[in-house]
């Protein structure tokens, strides 16, 4: 019951009341040694009150709980050294990491905790010491891996075509070799080494991604932009295309160019994932993701309807014409592709003016140009501009969240020997078997002096205001009453000594 009350207090809108009641409930916790502290009991979602405060973005409660966990080492003048307890914060030994919970939540207030002490210092320490070097090395290694795969595709085994052409439009001169013919020369053996590296890399990608999908869940793993959800879909699809290409090569099945082409596009597009390690490029990847999976996905439904309707109309119009003079609409699939090019203004109207064109072509093409080019494309540009404006206001915040997500990912993937635990063991200071982060804080004495002046002048204003209210009550009881307006009250208050104090404070500021 006490633990349930603590969780309810974390969700209270009145933060000051919640902090006092939280402390009151803990003061009655008399079974810490036998049953454990109430603060360490999780709810049904596996969240302790401390983690719940982070997920809900309750910065006041989070700072209050952190103040209870800190230990002052020493203080010398304005310089203070503090040890912050990293229990439930550090993701090194946590199955459900506090940092991962913050970056995976949809509440923007939760990401503000990343700027608070000691989370900010812990993330900075992890990223600068281990995260950035390992991430840059991983980016270079992946680019070299993609270069190897690309070279294997460029020099894939082909042989001249021996059969006769079945159509005048058939332009094929090379075909795929059989498995027995693909690995005979020294160049083929060198390519085989690259292909083995490519297949091994695809298997490693699947082995690294599948456990995270099972642990986090597919909806959260693929749906969170900060966690790199779209890029996870891209890299898993890429690995599957590599395995499909391998099976088609081993079985001598023709058509390996289809999965190979998809793998090349997806593999090189995944390079954009590594832009999140750089502050200059990281926010732009978020904008691209939000535009593709937000604006563009909605726009594609409208575009598909328009293209389908006008492509059918163009095909019907040119169905009775000679396809040699108007090859862009010689069949229905080609009509769809040509209409798509027209929609994006990649090509001009495919009209051959050496022959007579149907009258309906001019009418339909006029309507298509108005709807597609002038209306829908400008609508897409306006939607993307609005998304860019919204993301630009929080791009630095989103980039820091990306850095945290990347740091947690690397810490989980890498062996413990390559990523030692951050912080200081409490045994060195007699604080038990817990880990702490040492933070040095410099207090500006002038700032605190100004704050004391401010509080003093506020108190003096309140005293003068109370005296004026008492005088008003006395005047009401007298025979000769005088109505005192709020304006005269404010004037009398402004003539007090506190007014001179505020003027001194403004000049000093």
Automatic annotation (TrEMBL):
Asked if the Swiss-Prot or TrEMBL record annotates the protein with the keyword Transmembrane, the reply is yes
Molecular function in Gene Ontology? calcium channel activity; metal ion binding
Question: Could you mention a single GO BP entry for this protein?
Answer: calcium ion import across plasma membrane
Pfam families annotated for this entry?
Ion_trans
Which residues are in the Ion transport domain? 135-393
Membrane topology per the record?
Multi-pass membrane protein
Q: Which InterPro entries did the record assign?
A: Ankyrin_rpt-contain_sf (IPR036770), Ion_trans_dom (IPR005821), TRPV (IPR024862), TRPV5 (IPR008346), TRPV5/TRPV6 (IPR008344)
Q: Where is the signal peptide?
A: none
Q: Which superkingdom, per the lineage?
A: Eukaryota
Its transmembrane ranges are 134-158, 192-210, 231-251, 257-275, 296-318, 359-381
User: Which Gene3D superfamilies does the record match to this protein?
Assistant: Ankyrin repeat-containing domain (1.25.40.20)
Intracellular or extracellular location(s): Membrane
GO annotation, cellular component aspect: plasma membrane
Q: What keywords tag this UniProt record? A: ANK repeat, Membrane, Metal-binding, Phosphoprotein, Repeat, Transmembrane, Transmembrane helix
Q: What protein is this chain from?
A: TRPV5 protein
- Origin organism lineage: Eukaryota, Metazoa, Chordata, Craniata, Vertebrata
Name the gene behind this protein: Trpv5
């Amino acid at each position: 019951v006490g633990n349930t009350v603590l969780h309810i207090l974390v969700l209270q809108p009145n933060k000051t009341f919640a902090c006092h009641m939280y402390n009151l409930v803990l003061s009655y916790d008399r079974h810490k040694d036998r049953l454990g502290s109430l603060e360490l009991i999780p709810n049904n979602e596996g969240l302790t009150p401390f983690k719940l405060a982070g997920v809900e973005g309750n910065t006041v409660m989070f700072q209050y709980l952190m103040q209870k966990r800190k230990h002052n080492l020493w203080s010398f003048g304005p310089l203070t050294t503090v040890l912050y307890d990293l229990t439930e914060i550090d993701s090194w030994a946590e199955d459900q990491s506090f940092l991962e919970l913050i970056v995976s939540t949809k509440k923007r207030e939760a990401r503000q905790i990343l700027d608070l002490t000691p989370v900010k210092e812990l993330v900075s320490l992890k990223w600068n010491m281990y995260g950035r070097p390992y991430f840059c090395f991983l980016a270079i290694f992946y680019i070299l891996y993609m270069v190897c795969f690309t070279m294997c595709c460029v020099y894939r085994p082909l042989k001249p075509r021996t059969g006769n052409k079945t159509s005048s439009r058939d332009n094929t001169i090379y075909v795929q070799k059989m498995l027995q013919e693909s690995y005979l020369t020294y160049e083929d053996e060198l390519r085989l080494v690259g292909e083995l590296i490519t297949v091994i890399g695809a298997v490693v990608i699947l082995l690294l991604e599948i456990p995270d999908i099972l642990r986090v869940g597919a909806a959260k793993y693929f749906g969170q932009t900060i966690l790199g959800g779209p890029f996870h879909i891209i890299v898993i699809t890429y690995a599957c295309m590599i395995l499909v290409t391998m099976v088609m090569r081993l079985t001598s099945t023709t058509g390996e160019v289809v999965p190979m082409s998809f793998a090349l596009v997806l593999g090189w597009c995944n390079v954009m994932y590594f832009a999140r390690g750089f502050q200059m490029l990281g926010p732009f990847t978020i904008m691209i993701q939000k535009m593709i999976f937000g604006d563009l996905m909605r726009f594609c439904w409208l575009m598909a309807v328009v293209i389908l309707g006008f492509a059918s109309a163009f095909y019907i119009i040119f169905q009775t014409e000679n396809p040699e003079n108007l090859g862009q609409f010689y069949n229905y699939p080609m009509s769809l592709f040509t209409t798509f090019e027209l929609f994006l203004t990649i090509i001009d109207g495919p009209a051959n003016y050496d022959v007579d064109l149907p009258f309906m072509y001019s009418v339909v093409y006029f309507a298509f140009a108005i709807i597609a080019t002038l209306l829908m494309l400008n609508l897409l540009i306006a939607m993307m501009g609005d998304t860019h404006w919204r993301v630009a206001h929080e791009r630095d915040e989103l980039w820091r969240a990306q850095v945290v997500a990347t740091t947690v990912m690397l810490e989980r993937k890498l062996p413990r020997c390559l990523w030692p635990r951050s912080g200081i063991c409490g045994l060195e200071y007699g604080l038990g078997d817990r880990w702490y982060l040492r933070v040095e804080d410099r207090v500006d004495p002038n700032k605190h002096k100004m704050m004391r002046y401010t509080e003093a002048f506020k108190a003096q204003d309140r005293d003068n205001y109370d005296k004026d209210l008492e005088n008003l009550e006395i005047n009401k009881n007298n025979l000769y009453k005088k109505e005192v307006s709020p304006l005269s009250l404010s004037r009398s208050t402004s003539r007090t000594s506190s007014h001179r104090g505020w003027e001194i404070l403004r000049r000093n500021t």
